[in-house]
Amino acid sequence: MRARRDDKKEKYRDYNRISAQRLEKDQDKLKLQLLIETLTSKYNIDPKELLLEVEKDSLIPTSIFSEKLSTLETVVKYLKENNGLKNKKIAELVGRDSKSVWQAYNSSKKKQAEKIIVSDIKHTFPISILKNKQLSVLENVVAYLKEQGLQNKEISELIKRDQRTIWTVLNRAKNKRGGNENIR
């Protein structure tokens, strides 16, 4: 008898928790709709165009990186699991083919089964930088962070790579760009 009462109480708590989460999502959704309406009317653009523009240059937090996964594996896993994107869309966003994205995602699942947790959004990079096929995914990310004024040590801590790797990657990126001095 007591077990039944406890089960009912637990179900009631779960229902209240789920209801509170739905309410919070609904409020966030309303805020987003209001923001979209404001921006589209202020700048006289179509809401679909606005969403495409935002999606095109979405920001990726550097806190998603781990020592377990490669840069591409991390980005693909994050976009697929945390943002719910399909492989084809991810391939389009990162400028790689669908097979590479599929392979990176499958490899990432084997190395790290759990979903990526975003712990901090202080440092981000735009997804559009990954479309530069002249550089690898890691080179693009490291070069971008360096161009934002971060030191090698800070970059190595952010993306969980050794400082010597960061130095090597930066030099490789600089050489591929023809010695362009934009990378400090």
The major beta sheet can be summarized as:
2 strands, antiparallel
What distance lies between the first and last C-alpha atoms, to the nearest angstrom?
71 Å
Secondary structure: helix percent: 55-70%
- What is the global morphology? globular
By secondary-structure content and strand pairing, the structural class works out as mainly alpha
Topology, number of strands: 2
Report mean pLDDT, rounded to a whole number: 85
Overall structural domain count: 2
Tell me what the structure shows:
It contains 8 helices and 2 strands; from the N terminus they run ααβαααβααα. It is mainly α and 184 residues long. It folds into 2 domains: 2-52; 57-176, no CATH class. The protein has a two-stranded antiparallel ribbon. Helix 3 crosses helix 5 (98-111) and helix 6 (137-147) packs across helix 8 (163-176). It is globular and about 70 Å long.
At a glance:
This protein is mainly alpha-helical. The protein has eight helices and two strands.
Write the layout of secondary structure elements.
Blueprint: H1 2-43, H2 47-56, E1 59-61, H3 71-82, H4 87-94, H5 98-111, E2 124-126, H6 137-147, H7 152-159, H8 163-176
Antiparallel strand pairs: 1-2
Helix pairs in contact: 3-5, 4-5, 6-8, 7-8
